[in-house]
Design a protein that fits this description.
Bound molecules: nicotinamide-adenine-dinucleotide
CATH class of the largest domain: Alpha Beta
Largest sheet: 9 strands, mixed
Number of domains: 2
CATH topology of the largest domain: Dihydrodipicolinate Reductase, domain 2
Shape: globular
Strand content: 15-25%
CATH architecture of the largest domain: 2-Layer Sandwich
Oligomer: single chain
Distance between the termini: 38 Å
CATH superfamily of the largest domain: Dihydrodipicolinate Reductase, domain 2
Helix content: 25-40%
Number of helices: 10
């Protein structure tokens, strides 16, 4: 069993070979760049050549903190620099499509934060532009590289729990929405900026559902305009079901974040450590019980990497690997178009109180 876990642990190890390093510049010097992107790149030994932000003083401060040699006065200046080959975009969702278009037009490869587009039409358009230009473009849907989730995916691929019959993710959090002024007026909020990670992960494990049904709600006294609690159910042609339930106004002061994957031959259960004390968090937990190995009860897998910052090595690493080897990033924009489709279907279900089918 320990040998089998060692194999999975090696497959989940996040590193970027020096031969894959490219000229990378970051657009946005906000909370997630300072707290996750740059610490992850530092941990991976990946140099960053420049950064820009509408808030020049902030860009300067972050550049100094992380030893980034160049602060550009604007996005235009950054994109005009021929030494910049890869653009790491991490600005509020509404601002991303224009920057994405400009980056592709300037011949840069792109890693965009989630959601890279707020509607399916824009997602298809942006993905098409990158493909036409022959550039690598991916979305920072880095939960797929969070070790608890990535190792669970490997266990499923290896057949340890058989075909998936059920997948659930449940989080109950006290999210400090006041930290993100741009999030306050968003009418599509919780699923669009937070649970999109869970919905992307469900898609990664189970593919496209036949249909979804979702409800969303607000809590008296909450700060943002949009929904802060949602529950979504998925129906699959195979008979499998999935549930994502997220509440961000937890007044019980007992935050938790759990997932469970049931299969025909076993089950996997875990916790998403980051969310117990965001943004510091703790390591995930992950346990498996399998009839095919057999495990003789629940066996804990030793998680040694975190969602923040480690998983951010995975998404940037996949873009650099794609440039170097021609591989396709796990979270390519072409794949993410279907996550945006799913998110749109969830909102249509929520708004119309109806089951929404997803085509192919
Ligand atoms: N786990 C994750 O993947 C994760 C977590 C948090 C946030 N995010 C995403 O990252 C993005 C940024 O979030 P954040 O928490 O850092 O927000 P933030 O508010 O802390 O920072 C956003 C920064 O972007 C800058 N900015 C805005 N428009 C810009 C423009 N046009 N050009 C240059 N700079 C611009 C702002 O000045 C600000 O410094 C959002 O899209 C958010 O959804 C992802």
């Amino acid at each position: 069993m320990i040998d089998l876990f060692a194999e999975i642990s090696e497959e989940c190890r996040l590193a970027i070979p020096a031969a894959h390093h490219r000229g990378i510049a970051v657009i946005g010097a906000g909370g997630i760049v300072e707290g996750a992107h740059l610490p992850a790149y530092a941990r991976a030994g990946l140099p960053i050549m420049g950064i820009t932000d509408l808030d020049a003083a902030r860009a300067q401060r972050v550049a100094e903190a992380f030893g980034i040699p160049r602060v550009y006065g604007s996005v235009e200046h950054l994109l005009a620099d021929p030494a910049v080959e890869v653009v790491d975009i991490a600005v509020p969702a509404a601002a991303q499509p224009a920057i994405f278009r400009a980056a592709i037009a300037a011949g840069k490869h792109v890693l965009a934060q989630k959601p890279f587009a707020l509607d399916p039409e824009t997602a298809v358009e942006l993905s098409g532009r990158a493909a036409e230009a022959g550039l690598v473009a991916a979305v920072n849907q880095q939960m797929r590289y969070d070790e608890g989730i990535a190792a669970a995916h490997r266990m499923v691929e290896k057949g340890w729990i058989g075909a998936i019959t059920g997948f659930s993710i449940t989080v109950n959090l006290a999210t400090p929405w006041e930290l993100w002024p741009w999030a306050q007026p968003m009418e599509r909020l919780e699923v669009m900026v937070h649970s999109i990670h869970y919905h992307d992960v469900v898609r990664w494990f189970l593919g496209e559902p036949e249909s979804v049904y979702a409800v969303g709600g607000r809590t008296p006294g909450q700060i943002p305009v949009g929904e802060t609690r949602t529950a979504t159910t998925y129906r699959y042609a195979s008979g499998a079901i999935a549930v994502v339930h997220a509440n961000h106004v937890n007044r019980g002061e007992d935050n938790y974040a759990e997932f469970r994957i049931d299969g025909a031959d076993g089950a996997i259960r875990g916790t998403i450590g980051l969310l117990y004390d965001y943004p510091d968090g703790r390591t995930d937990t992950l346990e498996v019980r399998s009839r095919t190995l057999p495990t003789d009860g629940w066996v804990p897998y030793p998680v040694t990497q975190r969602w923040i910052p480690d998983a951010f090595i995975g998404t940037m690493g996949s873009v650099l690997d794609a440039i170097a080897t021609g591989s396709t990033p796990l979270t390519s924009v072409a794949d993410n178009v279907r996550t945006i489709d799913l998110i749109d279907a969830i909102y249509r279900s929520m708004n119309d109180n109806s089951v929404v089918g997803l085509s192919g």
